Amino acid sequence: MKRSIPLLLLLAFAMCAQKPAADRAADHADHMTAAAPAANWAKQALERSPRHREWVNVKAGNRTVSAFVAYPEVKNKATAVVVIHEIFGMSDWVQLEADELAAAGYIAIAPDLLSGMGPKGGGTSDFAADNNAIGKAIRDLPPDQITSDLNAVADYVSKLPAANGKVAVTGFCWGGGESFRFATNRPTLAAAFVFYGPGPESPEAIKAPVYGFYAGNDARIGATVPKTQELMKAAGKTYDVVTYEGAGHGFMRAGDAPPPPSDADQKTTEAYAGNKKARDAAWIRWKDLLGKL
Predict the structure, then answer these.
(1) Distance CA 231, CA 219 (A)
(2) Residue 116, by phi and psi: left (phi above 0), alpha (psi -120 to 50) or beta?
(3) Helix, strand, coil % (nearest 5) of the chain?
(4) What is the mean pLDDT of the chain?
(5) DSSP assignments along 56-90, one per residue
(6) pLDDT tens-place string over residues 209-219
(7) Strands 163-172 and 78-84
(8) Given the DSSP bridges, would you call strands 192-195 and 107-111 parallel, antiparallel or unpaired?
(9) Which residues sit opposite 83 in a β-bridge?
(10) Which residue of 54, 179, 206, 233 could cross-link 171, Cys pair, CB 3.0 to 4.6 Å?
(11) How confident is the model at residue 187, as a pLDDT?
(12) What is the average pLDDT across 191-209?
């Protein structure tokens, strides 16, 4: 019997999606009805990394934000990238993305935006991999708190001895929308890299160039892009978009995952191939843009 697409990818596509900014506070409850299994492949890949990684506590007003930092092995001071997690919270895969940015020569810092919001006062790990509860908690995060946390993390990483002072932001699915919104709140950002996330309602305050990475098979998010392009153009902002045909929402995670088994059905095989191709192309573009900052 042919095997269907792996559960992890199905759930990633279903849960990573984010509504337009105007409806952010009323995220679809049905996206939270199923829990994705632990991405052990991401954890295993991370454990093989030779780079220095550490957890730090960053003060954000009266809050303490736990953040994962990955350092590049480079001679000179490096640009930093704030990595905003998906609706899954602080996952092994988010840490892996931070490590991959470090491999490319950048300091990456990924804050757990659920820090202090867990049932025991901790962060994402407090939810015991219950992605339904994680998603609901992320949905209810106060926007001003998110901005404060991100500003504190950006300030922290910009002042590290190994940093050159430049800070960019990136995010995936829910984090993609938040990276775009953060660009409206921090004019000193060097750039914003938005992965399959919608744009803000008012982009006038944005100073940094914004680069969008979208999937061809993601009509719900893709349908928001023309309006965002219109708003950004009217405001005189840089918004450079690439849509990867054959890819689905969440293609960066899905393209990182191991390939499906050899007896997988054609649809599953083609979906993986499209996501893997998009993921690889996106990384080439991303590293090229980072290199120009």
Answers:
(1) 19
(2) left
(3) 45, 20, 35
(4) 89
(5) EEEEETTEEEEEEEE----SS-EEEEEEE--TT-S
(6) 999 999 999 99
(7) parallel
(8) unpaired
(9) 170
(10) 179
(11) 97
(12) 97
The pLDDT-based confidence of 110 (bands split at 50, 70, 90) is very high
Across the range 169-187, mean pLDDT stands at 98
Q: CA separation (Å) from 39 to 35, 218, 259? A: 12, 22, 14
Task: Give SS3 for 134.
Answer: helix
* Better-scored residue on pLDDT, 199 or 13: 199
**154 C-beta neighbours (distance < 10 Å), count:** 23
Cβ(206)–Cβ(233) below 8 Å: no
Residue found under tokens 């990818």: 9
Q: What distance in Å separates the CA atoms of residue 110 and residue 71, rounded to the nearest whole number?
A: 12
Query: Per-residue pLDDT for 26 more than 80?
Result: no
* Six token digits for residue 21: 């900014």
CB atoms within 10 A of CB 270: 12
Per-residue pLDDT, 12: 43
Residues 146 and 113: their CA atoms lie apart, in Å, by 7
Alpha carbon 244 to chain centroid, angstroms: 17
167: β partners: 80
Q: Is a pLDDT exceeding 90 seen at residue 15?
A: no
- Own/partner long-range contacts of 126-134 (Cβ < 8 Å, ≥24 apart): 127/89, 129/35, 129/38, 130/35, 131/11, 131/15, 131/32, 131/34, 131/35, 131/36, 131/87, 131/88, 131/89, 132/32, 132/33, 132/34, 132/35, 134/87, 134/88, 134/89
pTM score, whole prediction? 0.88
Q: SS3 of 211, please?
A: strand
Note the residue count of the chain. 293
Reading the block at residue 29, the tokens are 């409850």
